[in-house]
DNA sequence: GCTATTTTGTCTAAATTATGTCCATAAAGT
DNA sequence: ACTTTATGGACATAATTTAGACAAAATAGC
C-alpha cells in the first residue's frame, strides 16, 4: 500500500481540518507520514483510518492528548467501548443544510451536505440522525404541502445515490445469510426499502435489492433463485391499497416458510394481513437488528 | 502492428485535455509514447487506460505528483482494492457478462461487470457499447417474456447506481448552461432520463435531475427555481397515455419559450403533440450533442 | 470558588511547490 | 487555407509547509 494521499485528501476523508492534522502531528506525533522530495506529506489509507478513529474518539469525549499514543488497534477497541455520546455533535446542522438545499432544488449542495455528514458521522449515525429525520421531514412536509413534488423527487434521487454509495462501503462475507429486499406491487416508494437494505447489510446479511413495486410471484421466484433466507418488505405509501393485502397473502402462499419482515410508515393499515401471514413487524433499526440476529 | 492513437484521441478517451497530457508527460513522465517519423506521439490502448486511471485517481483526491510514478497495476489497486483487472482481457464481452448476471439475479456480478466496463471502456464507450445495448435487450426481452420483472428490476437498480456513479465523475463549470431532466407524469421509467442526464453533463451542461413522473406545473416551477435554460424529457413507457399529451401541452403553456428536448423509445406515439409544442426530438447521443451545442 | 496553567482547535503570514491552462512559433497533417 | 501537433516557457491559482499567535475550554492548584 504505497502512501499517496495528500493532506487535503486525508482531511476530506477523515472529517478533520488540515490544520488539526498538522497540529496533532506536531504536538502528539499521531502519524509520521513519509515525505515527497519536496517535503509534502504522503499518507496511506491506514493513516486515514487512524485519523478517523481519532476524530471519533475525541468527539466521544476522549482528549486527544490521552489517546494520541494509542495504536490503531487500541483505538478501534476504545471506540467499541465508548458510550459517551456527545450531544454537541452538529447533526442538526447537517439536517438543516440538507433541507435548505432541497428547498432550493440545489442538487450539488444537497449531495455535498449528505456526503460530508456520512463521512463525519459514520454510517450508523448518518442513517439515524440525518437520513431518517430527513425522510420524516419529507413525509410530513409533503402532507402539509410545504414540500413540492419536485423537491421530494430531487431529495429522493440524491439520497438514493448517497445511500447506494454508503452501501458499497459495506462488505459482507458471501456465506452470510441472504435477504431479498423490495416493496410489493402497489408500493412505489423505494427509499425505505433502500434504508432497510443498508441496515441489513450493516447487520451482516447479503442483500439482494430489487427496487419497488415487485409482484408476488416475482418475489417468490426471486427468493428461490437467490436462495434467500428471508424477505424484507417496505410499506410507505399508499396506506390503504387492497392490492397490497392480496399480494402479501400470495407471497405467503407461494413461500409458506420463508420469514417475512415488514416495516414502514403505513404498516398499521395492513396489520391484520401482516399478522395473518405471520410476518415480523419492525419499527426501527434496533428491532430489525434483533430480528435478523434471531434468524441467522 | 498494434493500433496507435493521437494525443487528441487520447484526450477524448481519457477525459483529460491535450495540454494536461503533455504537462503530465513532461513533468512526471507518466507515459513515454513512441513517436512517428515526424515526432507525433503514438499512444497505445494501455496508455489510454493509464491516463484514465490517473484521472480517476486525481479526482478521488490523490494529487498527480504523488501517483504519477505508480505502475498501472498499482493504480488499478488504489481504490478498487477488490477488483483484479486484466488489461489483456479487453476483448471481454461485457454485455454478455451483464446479461448473464442479470439472468442469475446476481447483483454483485452485474455490478462488477458494469463497473469494470465503465473503467476500462471509458464513459462514452461504456454508455454506447454496454448500457444502451443492455437497455435494448431489456426492452425486447421484456416484451418477449424472456426477462422477468425481477430481473428487470435488478438490472434497473444496479444500472442506476452505476450510472449515478459515472455521472459523479463528470465535472461541469458552474456557469455552464443548465438543463432540467425528468420524465412527465405517466412516464415511470427513469433509466432513459438518467442516460440523458449523463449525456448532457458530458456535453458540458449543468444537469438538475429530478427522477421520473413529475407533473407539468412542478416542472415549470423547477425550471424557474433552478434558472434552467432547457428541459430534457424521456418517454419510454407507456406508449399511448393521453396524460402525457396533456402534460406536454401544459408544460409548453407554462413555459412558452424554454427549449424542450424529448427522446426515448415511444416518442413516435406522441409525435403530433411534440411537434405542436415545438419540442426538439433527439434519437441518439449525437443528435443530443448537436442540439445542446446549438442551444448554448 | 477563583485564579493560573495547560490543552486544544483554529488562524495568520510568508515562502515554496503543484498544477492546469495558455501563448508563440514552428512543423506537419488534411 | 485550416487544423492539429510539438516545444519551451509563462502565468495564475491553489495547495502545502513552517513557525508562531490566539482564544476558548479544560484542568490544576490554592
Structure description:
The structure is a homodimer of 296-residue chains. The first copy, chain A, has 296 residues and is α/β, with parallel strands linked by helices. The first copy, chain A, has 3 domains: 7-81, Multidrug-efflux Transporter Regulator, Chain: A, Domain 2 (Orthogonal Bundle), CATH 1.10.1660.10; 91-168, Orthogonal Bundle (Methyltransferase, Methionine Synthase (B12-binding Domains), Chain A, domain 1), CATH 1.10.1240.10; 178-295, Rossmann fold (3-Layer(aba) Sandwich). Helices cover 58% and strands 8% of the residues of chain A. In chain A, the strands form 2 sheets. Chain A has a 5-stranded parallel beta sheet, with helices on both faces. In chain A, helix 12 (271-276) links the parallel strand 6 (260-263) and strand 7. In chain A, helix 7 (107-143) crosses helix 8 (149-168) and helix 8 (149-168) runs parallel beside helix 9 (191-202). The longest helix of chain A has 37 residues, at 107-143. The radius of gyration of chain A is 22 Å and the shape is elongated. Chain A starts with 6 loop residues before the first helix and ends with a helix. Mean pLDDT of chain A is 89; it is low at 82-90. Chains A and B meet through helix 1, helix 8 and helix 10 of A and helix 4, helix 8 and helix 10 of B. The first copy, chain A, binds a DNA duplex (30 and 30 nucleotides) through residues 6-8, 17-20, 22-24, 26-27, 36, 38-41, 58, 63-65.
Amino acid at each position: 500500500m504505497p502512501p499517496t494521499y495528500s493532506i487535503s485528501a486525508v482531511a476530506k476523508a477523515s472529517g478533520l481540518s488540515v490544520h488539526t492534522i498538522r497540529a496533532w502531528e506536531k504536538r502528539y506525533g499521531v502519524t509520521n507520514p513519509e515525505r515527497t522530495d519536496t517535503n509534502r506529506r504522503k499518507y496511506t489509507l491506514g493513516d486515514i483510518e487512524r485519523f478517523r478513529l481519532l476524530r471519533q474518539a475525541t468527539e466521544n469525549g476522549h482528549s486527544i492528548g490521552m489517546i494520541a499514543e494509542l495504536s490503531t488497534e487500541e483505538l478501534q477497541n476504545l471506540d467499541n467501548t465508548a458510550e459517551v455520546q456527545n450531544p454537541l455533535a452538529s447533526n442538526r446542522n447537517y439536517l438543516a443544510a440538507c433541507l435548505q438545499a432541497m428547498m432550493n432544488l440545489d442538487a450539488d449542495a444537497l449531495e455535498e451536505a449528505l456526503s460530508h455528514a456520512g463521512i463525519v458521522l459514520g454510517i450508523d449515525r448518518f442513517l439515524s440522525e440525518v437520513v431518517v429525520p430527513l425522510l420524516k421531514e419529507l413525509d410530513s412536509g409533503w402532507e402539509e404541502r410545504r414540500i413540492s413534488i419536485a423537491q421530494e423527487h430531487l431529495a429522493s434521487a440524491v439520497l438514493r445515490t448517497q445511500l447506494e454509495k454508503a452501501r458499497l462501503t459495506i462488505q459482507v462475507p458471501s456465506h452470510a445469510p441472504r435477504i431479498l429486499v423490495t416493496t410489493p406491487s402497489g408500493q412505489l416508494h423505494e427509499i425505505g426499502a433502500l434504508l432497510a437494505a443498508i441496515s441489513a447489510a450493516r447487520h451482516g446479511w447479503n442483500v439482494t435489492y430489487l427496487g419497488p413495486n415487485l409482484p408476488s410471484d416475482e418475489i417468490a421466484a426471486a427468493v428461490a433463485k437467490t436462495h434467500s433466507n428471508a424477505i424484507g418488505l417496505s410499506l410507505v405509501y399508499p396506506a390503504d391499497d387492497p392490492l397490497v393485502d392480496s399480494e402479501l397473502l400470495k407471497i405467503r402462499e407461494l413461500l409458506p416458510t420463508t420469514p417475512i419482515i415488514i416495516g414502514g410508515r403505513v404498516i398499521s393499515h395492513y396489520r391484520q394481513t401482516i399478522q395473518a401471514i405471520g410476518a415480523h413487524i419492525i419499527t426501527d433499526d434496533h428491532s430489525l437488528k434483533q430480528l435478523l440476529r434471531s434468524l441467522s
